[in-house]
């Protein structure tokens, strides 16, 4: 981990301010947020940054957008579910694999997304990996992954904790580190698939326009009842197809 206290990215800090206001009842369930100009003025921020934070809050289930009404506060976050537990770089491109280019390897404090899905207490430190997956002739995919707090990993999956600490950890995804460390350990994965837009920051990372449509896949991996990894995978238009297996 790091010696200093991890710093939140600006959009995450703004996300946290709005999420805190929701949890404190400033914007109760079912209420409608003020218009973007008014909310930006109240928070003392620019509208582009506010729009990015609102997009993340919508993706994480705190807000819904209703035509003719605006952004409303949800009563409860949506359920999440997913079937096939394999690293994304293996799932895409029909098993041929994609190149994983690390953008960021750091630690950060929990957001509502990671607090909800990793049961991370306020003030804890979570490893955060941000990567772009690319293949020949395919649009890039942005992947963001968080591991549970160190003390949780030490109890639930010490081999995964050790693999993440290794200085020679692979340059692939965090799930690609988890998989070989889990031989003999049963894992379960749950995710949801929803439609969204890239937004300015992610559009810049992928070299795409901010209003590019995208599929957002959220994923949580558990050992028993303990969540050890949470992820967001952003697949813009033109990205490789994501296979989903179903059975009954």
TrEMBL record:
- Keyword vocabulary terms for this entry: DNA-binding, Transcription, Transcription regulation
HTH gntR-type domain sequence ranges: 8-76
Q: What is this protein called?
A: GntR family transcriptional regulator
InterPro entries, sorted? Bact_HTH_transcr_reg (IPR050679), Chorismate_lyase_/UTRA_dom_sf (IPR028978), Tscrpt_reg_HTH_GntR (IPR000524), WH-like_DNA-bd_sf (IPR036388), WH_DNA-bd_sf (IPR036390)
**What SUPFAM superfamilies does UniProt report for this protein, alphabetically?**
Chorismate lyase-like, Winged helix' DNA-binding domain
Is Lipoprotein one of the keywords UniProt gives this record? no
Membrane keyword on record: no
Q: Which residues form a coiled coil?
A: none
Which Pfam families does this entry report, sorted A to Z? GntR
Q: Where are the transmembrane segments?
A: none
